[in-house]
Each structure stands twice: as C-alpha cells, then as structure tokens.
Design a protein that fits this description.
The protein is mostly helical. The chain has 8 helices and no strands. α1 packs across α2 and α1 runs parallel beside α3. It folds into 2 domains: 70 residues, no CATH class; 103 residues, no CATH class. It is 64% helix and 0% strand.
Length: 188
C-alpha cells in the first residue's frame, strides 16, 4: 500500500521542480522573462496528480519545458539548427566530452559566482550551440538524447549523437578559454 501523500510535501516538491526548470529555461533562452512565461505556461498545462510519484511529474514538466525552449530557440535562430558541425581538425582542445570542467565546476558556474560570466558566454552562442551546451551541461542529457530533442524540430532531422558530441566539445573549449580570459590579471 502506498503511503499517503502530504499536501505540503507535494507543494514543496512542485515548487523545487518549478525553480529548477526556471533556472534551466533562463539559461537555455537567455531571458528570465521568457523563462518564467514558459515554465508558468507549462506547469499550468500539465495535469499532474499531486499524490503521484513526483519523479514522473518532474520528468513530464522537464520534457515539456525543454520542448518549449527548443521551439523558441528554433523560431529565433532556425539557421543554426540547419547544419551540424563538421568534424574538427586534429587540433581539438578536448579529447572527450569530459572536458577540463568537472560537473561540480559547471554547477558552480550555473548557480554560483560565475553565473554572470557563463550567461555572457552563452549569449555569444548560436541557438544550436546554446541548446546543446545547456542540455548536456545543465540537464545532464547524453549526446543521443540531446540529438533526439533537437531533431523533433529540425527539418531534416540531421542531428546525431556524434554531431552533438563535437559541438559540446567545441563549446567546452570556448567556455574554458572564456573563463581563462575573464580571470583577473592580478592572480599572477
């Protein structure tokens, strides 16, 4: 028999999920106003039993916020999704997707003092680059899931796990370079 659901527990879980989706949407879209609107519209449209498994509800809201954010990015910058990155020459700065930034380092950038630097860097990316980076680094999606999410809107559906991997490595190189250049010169 399932344990009874506490109303206040369900509300707290829902609020935490909404806050997490807002942070994701704001990074994905580069606009806090659009992020709030997207999350509010998504949460209002999703019918969820407050006593059901909160992971199911969170996953459903997350998928819909992701889809909504990708739709907005596609409308704003359709050309960036039309071509996948070509394989780079042998001089790639990173050998694999792990990159020089660890998960905790990326988390610190997303939620900590480096948030402004990260947002400034994200603002310089194309829609596709931003979509790949945020899905991989913030949501923790793998290359295949990221390609599938983008391909729901890309016509033709040309994104592959390998293309996402290449674009993510390029983004990590760019971010690492940006962080090095933004570090105060006085740290010598």
């Amino acid at each position: 028999m399932a344990e009874p659901c506490s109303g206040s527990e369900a509300v707290v879980k829902a609020e935490n999920a909404a806050l997490e989706m807002y942070r994701f949407a704001a990074l994905m879209l580069g606009s806090e106003t659009e992020a709030v609107r997207l999350v509010e519209d998504t949460v209002a449209a999703v019918e969820v039993d407050p006593c059901a498994d909160p992971c199911v509800a969170k996953g459903m809201v997350r998928d819909r916020v992701l889809q909504g954010a990708l739709e907005i990015l596609h409308r704003q910058d359709p050309a960036s999704f039309a071509d996948v990155p070509a394989p780079a020459a042998a001089s790639e700065c990173l050998e694999d997707d792990a990159g020089q930034l660890s998960g905790p380092e990326l988390s610190a950038l997303v939620e900590g003092a480096g948030r402004r630097t990260l947002r400034d860097w994200l603002d310089r990316l194309s829609g596709a680059q931003r979509a790949v980076f945020v899905q991989r680094a913030v949501l923790g999606q793998d290359n295949a899931a990221t390609a599938n999410a983008i391909n729901r809107l890309a016509r033709p559906a040309i994104w592959t796990a390998d293309a996402v991997s290449r674009l993510f490595r390029q983004a990590l190189c760019s971010l690492a370079s940006s962080l090095v250049h933004s570090a105060p010169a006085a740290q010598a």
